[in-house]
Design a protein that fits this description.
Elements lengths: L2 E4 L5 H15 L1 E6 L2 H18 L6 E12 L2 E12 L1
Parallel strand pairs: 1-2
Antiparallel strand pairs: 2-4, 3-4
Length: 86
């Protein structure tokens, strides 16, 4: 499954387009976000992406979870959003 990484500076419309493209192609995508700003941009992107794929008969569902990742040699907690068609 493809993993998209979102930062606090990511543009929600751009991320939504990437989500829509991957979901149309493979049926599912995983998004990782570290920090409140990144999570905020991710949630906005998911809402926009649902509008992009719904005309194609795709109903996106989101399954959030925590993940331990390493950034610059330091362990951090990320929020992982698994998106797939219902």
């Amino acid at each position: 499954m493809e993993v998209l990484k979102v930062s606090a500076n990511s543009q929600p419309k751009s991320v939504a387009g990437a989500i829509a493209a991957v979901v149309r192609e493979s049926g599912a995508v995983e998004i990782q976000a570290v920090g409140a700003g990144a999570v905020n941009q991710t949630v906005k992107s998911i809402a926009i992406a649902r509008g992009y794929v719904s005309p194609n008969g795709i109903e996106l569902i989101c399954i959030p979870s925590f993940a331990k990742i390493e950034i610059d040699g330091e362990e951090r907690t990320a929020i992982r959003f698994q998106l797939e068609n219902r």
